[in-house]
Amino acid sequence: MMTNVSERPGAAPGEEIGFVGLGVMGQPMALNLAKAGTRLVVWNRSPAAGDPLREAGATVAVSVEDVFERARIVILMLVNEMVLDEVLRRGTPDFAKLVSGHIVVSMGSNPPDYSRGLAADILAAGGRYVEAPVSGSRKPAEMGQLVALLGGDPEAVSEVRPLLAPMCRETILCGPVGNALLMKLTVNLYLCTMLAGLAEAAHFAESNGLDLKTFQAAIDSGPMASDLTRVKIPKLIAQDFSVQAATADAFNSTKLIAEAARAANMASPVLDLCSALYGESVELGNGRLDMVSVVKAIEVRTAALRRN
């Protein structure tokens, strides 16, 4: 009879690791783990997403319960807290059965207060919790170049941290649960406003009859050049809105940041304006397109101005 891995002390060499959530980010992250030789057991609500993982040598579980039965450490990359609660059966007696004796690692972006509450519930049920939101979009995820921000009990964090190496070029310790997600919101504040500014600059150049490839050369040769500009300017030039980081996700992120700003009794004027633009792009039907589609909201404002 197989011993439940939750009864084993410490991280055993070759121990199976669970991974739940194989979406835009989760699938390439899990693939990097599998390709690095991690014994992986995965599950996704849409079963077809598990096919590439099976081909890479991972075990595709029949249910989330199967993942927790086989793996003591389970990584979750889920879209929001509603799905996280649903997958973990939170609020039902099955929650404690699932998480007891496990380390649950959430790599998605959730409100810090939610994360603190989930950590308390998991601890009360006999498990441990680490938040590990990542900075980066699909392309860095595919290349194993994400940055993970870690929050939680130091012992649990130290156990989880080495497992993230195939997915992340760097892991940054942020302190207790809640702090890593606050840091992720801080990073996203810069990202979302920076990208909206980049889209507006490209729109400004095009509206003034400038060649966008020349605009790209000017940016690439100056102090504003970054991995973001090198990836996103070509997408703006080609009007390529294939998703790396979705507009709806960017909009949701700006709303989380605004909530955290209000909780800290601080102003966020640049963020608030950019949030409105991402929201307008979502209303235009661009929610599942790449976040560079924020340029479409700017174009609509320009068209309205010209009509008037």
UniProtKB/TrEMBL annotation:
Keywords of the record, alphabetical order, are: NAD, Oxidoreductase
Under Enzyme Commission nomenclature, its number is 1.1.-.-
Say yes or no: keyword Oxidoreductase present. yes
Which GO MF terms does the UniProt record name?
NAD binding; NADP binding; oxidoreductase activity
Record domain 6-phosphogluconate dehydrogenase NADP-binding: where: 16-172
Keyword check for rRNA-binding, yes or no: no
Q: Which GO terms describe its biological process?
A: organic acid catabolic process
Question: What Pfam families would the database entry show?
Answer: NAD_binding_11, NAD_binding_2
Q: Which domain of life is it from?
A: Bacteria
> Which residues participate directly in catalysis?
184
Top EC class of this enzyme: oxidoreductase
The residue ranges of the 3-hydroxyisobutyrate dehydrogenase-like NAD-binding domain are 178-297
Q: Which PANTHER family match?
A: CYTOKINE-LIKE NUCLEAR FACTOR N-PAC, OXIDOREDUCTASE GLYR1-RELATED
Recorded protein name is NAD(P)-dependent oxidoreductase
- Name the species this protein comes from: Rhizobium sp. ZPR3
